[in-house]
Structures are given as C-alpha cells and as structure tokens.
Amino acid sequence: MKYNWKIGGEAGYGIMTTGTVISKIATRSGYHIFSYFEYPSLIRGGHNTVEVVFSDEEITASKWHVDMLVCLNKATYDLHKHRLTSNSIVMYDPDIFQPDIECKKVPLPLKKIKEKQEIHQQMLNTVAVGGSISMLGGDIAIFEDILKHQFARKGQEVVDFNVRLAKVGFDQIKADNVTPLSILSKKNETPEKMVLTGNDAYSIATVGADCKYYAAYPMTPSSSILMSLAAWQDQTQMVVRHSEDEIAVINSALGASFAGVRSSVGTSGGGFALMVEALSYAGIAEIPIVVFLGMRPGPATGMPTWTEQGDLLFATQAGHGEFPKIVLAPGDVSEMIELTLKAFDLADNYQTPVIIVADKFLCESFKDLFKDDVDKTLKDYSPNRGRIVSSTTQSPYLRYKIEETGVSEMLIPGQKGVFFQANSYEHIEDSHTTEDSEARKKQVEKRNKKWNTYLKTHFDGPKYYGDKLADTVFVTWGGVKGIVQEAQKILSREHNKNVGLLHFNHVYPLDEELIKSFFKDNVRYILVENNSHAQFGQLLRMQTGVNLNEKVLKYDGRPFWPEELVKYVNGESKQIHNDVPKSEDVEKPEATSDLEKRQDELLNKLAAKMATA
C-alpha cells in the first residue's frame, strides 16, 4: 500500500503544519511516510501545498498520482486535478466549487463551518485534518495527543479549541454517511519513530558532533537549522548566532574554530557566494569549518523556495587559489546524520573546510526513522579531533610544520610562552609571513598532501543498490537517491526489470582508480541530476576520466517523480517535464482582506489607464 494525501491552500493558513501533523499521525499509526512541501517565496497569498505518502513498507519519495486531494480553495483543485484518477478522493467545499472530473467527491462545508464556529480562515486546516482522519479511518485520539504536545505552551484553552475544531471536521464526515476507508487504521504497536527533514537531521547531528558555535543568516532552504539550534541552546550550550550577513557568519565561525571549538555555518547559494573569500582564508590558515550549503535554483535570487542541484561545481571550486576542501552530499536523512558527524571529524583531521551540499528537496522533505537507530548512531559516535591539541611539547612551535600527511599539529591558543599567528598570507613553518619561492612551494605541497591522505584514509566510494547483474544502472548523488530507489521498485514489480543504482555521497575529491572499478562494459549507465549542466557528470569525468553519455536532467525547480524515470527507462518519454496547467489557466482566488481588495482595485485602475493611454 502506498497512499498519497495532498492538501493545498494559500500561504499563511497553516498548510505546512498540516502536512507535519498528518505525517506524525501516520507514523504513530504504524506506517512509514515521506512528505514534501512546495510554496512560493511569499509570506501571504500564493499557493502552498504539501503531500504525504504513507505506506506499510519503507518509502523514500512521493508518487505522481494523488489518492486524496484536500482543497482549502478552488485553486488547489485547478492546479492538481491533472494528477487525480477516477478512484481519487477530492475533499472540497461545495459552496465554493464542484469538481468537474470523474472522481470520488467528499464535500466538507468549510465556509459554513467557519461562520458557525466564528473562526478565522487560518483555523480551517485543523478542520480539514479532522475530516481527513475520519475519511481515512484514522484514530482522532492520536491527533488530539499531537495537539496537546504542539500547543502545550499556549495553555489548555488553546489545546481544547483545536481539539474541538478537529472533531468538527471528523464528525462532519461521519454525519454525511460517507463510507470511510481503512487506510490509516492503526496497526500493531511499532518501535518509536522520528519524523525528520534533512535540515532536522543536520541539526541533530551537529549537536551530536559536539559543535559549540553555529552562525547563519536566514536563507531558504537552510533557515530552519538556525531556528532549531537556537531553540535548543539552553540544552546544548551551543552558541547560535544570527549574524548581520554571511561575511560575518563565516568569519565569526572561523574565529570560534581557531579558539578551539567545533564550528559550523549554514547558507544557500547567494550567501555562500559571500563566504568564499573567507573559505580561502580557512584554506591557507588551515582552520577547520563545516559549511552547510542548501541548494535552490539560481542564478542570483532565482527561485528561492524550489529545488535544484545547481551548486555542486561551485562548492568544489569555491575560493580563490588552490587549497584542499572536501564536499559531501547526503542522499537521505540517515546519510545526513552519518555524514554530518563525519564532516566534523574530517574538518578537524584535515584542518580544512568541509562542505555538505543538500538540495531543497532533501532539506525540507520529511522521512520517518526509527528512534532507536538514530539514538544508536549518536551514542556510538565519538569525536575525533585529529591533531588539534590544547598543549604542545614542540620548541619552537611550528604551526605549519611540513608533515608527510600534510597535517600539522594545531594548538588551541593559550599555552604560556607559545606564540603563532593565523593570518591570510603565505607563511613558513613557524607561521611568519613569507614571499620566498621555496617556502611557498613547500607549503603548497604540504597542503596538497591532505587530499592524498584523505583519499587513502577516509574516502568512501559509491554505494550500489539492487541487482549487481543489472544491465541498466542509474548514477546519482544527493537527494535524487530516494526517488531512484522508488523507481527501482516500480520497474521490478510492474515491469519485471532489474535496474541498479550507483549512489555517490563523497563527491569531492574522487579516487580515480576506486571509482573506475565500479563501472563495467556493456552496462547502460543513466546519470540523473536536478540541473541542466550534468554537473556531477562533469566532475566525474574531470576527476576520474569516466564519461557518462546518457543523462536525465531536470531543472524546472521540481524534483523528479519516480514514474518519470520509469517511463524514461522504458523508452516512453525522452522529455522529462511536469504536465501542469499554466498560471493564467487557473482561476485566481478572491482577495481575502481589505488590503488585498484595495490592492486589486488599484491594479485594475492602473491597467485601465494603461489600456487607454
């Protein structure tokens, strides 16, 4: 069973919260979930939507067909009806519109409920959740328990009010004698689960890695990391700083790292662009730093709230001059936890920047994990700080001593009688500035040795999933992983095709000989990337000589659908796109406030003047 529940409405009306709640209800009922949000870069207005797929087996991506569409306005129906089937359920307000395609219609009179209950439009999402639970055969008591935890700090009165609204929606469906489904009926007790986004996973692992300084300037899709870590400060004793800009973000974090604590920053493409000069400083001063880079479509502001894998080459080449850096790209929330822990160790061990790149799809999609598995990963982890020390026996102290591994001892400042500097100039071993050619050559070679040491010691090659004898193999990196895994299931079950997956999460640098061993003759390799330049394909060719000719690329701001990849493998579609109505074909919602009405009037007058000019 794989069931797709989707809700849509205007921004500002709690659509995102609704999706999180449904995800938690499904996991507490014993199901696995995957959910994803889409929203415009607006505070109010526009169209927000979230879909939650719940299944009785692990699921790693959404699916194309929507089984139940909850419409808080007509625009939701207009925008998403092309994904409905005759068996799909549409929950709608009959006083606003009537579905015009063949489907199962479930009326929910939201407008009348709003007037009768004397509530604001923002509260109707709670009514809709109650109606959805009733229609899907779920347990309303689970929702009540979630509400009690969610609104506990606001007092019992707020809890009771939301519980009452949920029951209004729940009872309304019952009163209409609609035959409920048993999709969300509670299964046998299962181990406790956590529902996490990629950003949540990074936040948890950052705490687990004993990071003590995190700085950021809010920028979608990385902003929630800043909010989560700030909310946990009392428990974690981490200093969390909302800096005035990204230049201050990374420079303050480098200062904290130089002083001896593990430090991290979070940003997206435009903010990362401001950080690259300081990234070079970290390279020459050999200061560890972990950078979280949440990718969204560029260039410039681009599409701030949509997804893309467009910053990979930027991350690998960021900073002027030549210096080693390491780039990791988790494919799911589990990998995000594991690789974040590893990133802090790598940053310390090699005294260099480590960049974690994650597309918005991974940053903000929800996935369930067993809590015991997360707890075990964190419990088994022990920080490895490499050659970072609080005291030294060297005399004189050589901060940049030439070492075979490329890694010299890094002393935390403060030892009596020991002096050194960490400025942005080239230096000799004792850290004094130099412009001597021979000294320069030796320090460049010293830093470069770090890469060889990393590739021999800590680099992990790609992981293979599926039948090892498969004659067709997808090649992926980052958040595309879960989508391809769902496509593999469909190809196997419905088309009797075994297709493999070769997934990279250590993406820079790459070990040439190791990587080449994974590619075989007479196998069809298909590179799948959410960008238009096949950036990982370029990186793979540049670093290893492996050239992948067949590519499936998508760059419209939307993630792949598993069904798209299935069609591609089967030769049914060479053009990957989203078949959605144009915005001008969708009926625009009425203005919902006096301000919006006045704005509409002014725009209409302006349009009339321009027409007669």
Automatic annotation (TrEMBL):
Region forming the signal peptide: none
Protein's GO biological process: response to oxidative stress
Ranges of residues in domain Pyruvate/ketoisovalerate oxidoreductase catalytic: 11-170
Keyword Oxidoreductase among UniProt keywords: yes
TM segment ranges: none
Keyword Oxidoreductase: yes
UniProt superkingdom: Bacteria
Pfam families: POR, POR_N
This protein's UniProt keywords: Oxidoreductase
Domain Pyruvate flavodoxin/ferredoxin oxidoreductase pyrimidine binding: 207-445
Gene Ontology molecular function: any one: oxidoreductase activity, acting on the aldehyde or oxo group of donors
Region (Disordered): 576-599
NCBIfam families xrefs: OAFO_sf
Name of the protein in question: 2-oxoacid:ferredoxin oxidoreductase subunit alpha
Species of origin: Candidatus Roizmanbacteria bacterium RIFCSPLOWO2_01_FULL_38_12
Lineage of source species: Bacteria, Candidatus Roizmaniibacteriota
